[in-house]
Amino acid sequence: MNDFEPNGGQEPDPDELRRIWEEMMKQGFDPEALAKAGGFDGSPESLKKLFENIQGAFLIPNPPADGSGVNWDAAATKAKDLAKVGALLPDEKSKQALNDAFAIAQLWLAEVTQISDPVTEAKLLSRVLWVEDALPLFKLLAEPVADRMNRSLGEAIRTQLPEEVSEALKGAGDIMRSAGAMMFAMQLGQALGQLSKEAITGTEIGLPIYVEQRPAFVLQNLNEFVRNLELGSEQDQAYIYMALREHAHIKLFKHSKWLREKIVAQIREYAAGISFDTSAMEELSEDFDPHNPAAFQQALESGAFLAERSESQLAALESIETNLALIEGWVDAVTNEAAKRLPKNEAIREAVRRRRATGGPAEQTFQSLVGLELRPKRLREASNLWRLLGEAVGPEKRDSLWDHPDFLPTAQDIDNPEKFVAKVKLSGPIDAFDQAIRDLLGDV
Fold first, then answer.
1. Which terminus has fewer CB within 10 Å in the chain: N or C?
2. C-alpha closest to that of 366 among 199, 177, 142
């Protein structure tokens, strides 16, 4: 390390530090260039100063005292740069086709569900705009994991520091944790950028990206999906089907005002309990080559640092997956009922189901980073439950189960739909007390 030359006493350039770091994230870095830009002259004191300069270059203003603050703007920039590659402006013909489909979807859904909502115009998104609008939600979901990960990484790195510099870095734990958080954020930006090329709607992951619940479509991605279905002159049916799905999602979340916040809170609580395998981090740190950080990035993306889930984690995960399945199952059931007029209904439905079940590479990267699949594993079973309920008790009674979280089916109910349907049938029609509760919840 003493081979590095000082930078002549000049003040370090934050922009230069940031540029070198970003290059490192892409293709490896030059430690000598990073050291010179940070003012390192070979002494323990200047080493400590170097880490402080790196911290100042990347952390957000007024970071939290625990050092977990991350420059999420950098993650957004990376995601948007990826989203711009291959991006096309929507043509007027596609816009009109989607607007016509959405108008039809509103009418058809009103026939199969009693859930109503004010008519809301659909928002057309570019890939870049999807990144901008989706980032707040993904930040909410990922922050607890980023915090846990960078703390564990900081500890693992500190155990690998030579004794001669450990004293100089005493009290610099926040800096080390922040470096890990920055790397996590950049990987999340990579995943979001790729997701922008796959996302079709604003409810792509089962949760609306907008707090105010409004339908949205990434028209370029929707057009590509429709073309790949090879429907020929019947492409308009795919637009109607996708409009039905998005509008059904929004109707449900608008009706159950507590639903989005409940799922987000569940995911954050689950994420906050994630443990990391510090021994795996330490092992990688021992062989870390600063000229080639690809091994570390691959380990982060693959989920190699995630420890095995505890019993409480598994129970929390089952609850999240059940709720996501209930949401997607209800949407699938009512969309299928509303789309019966479409000759290609079943073919389009199966294509959508396969797409949701498999997910793309970017979604799998997000799963590795957060340790959570945002895809319902039991979509078909949950859809069958809602279908049977609708046939047995009608749409009003079926949809009243979304009035409160305590009314919803459980994982066991999904396993035994006939038994749950019989229980709901025995409860009889909605009585005055039930209606009073619904009215009260509707005003919240």
1. C
2. 142
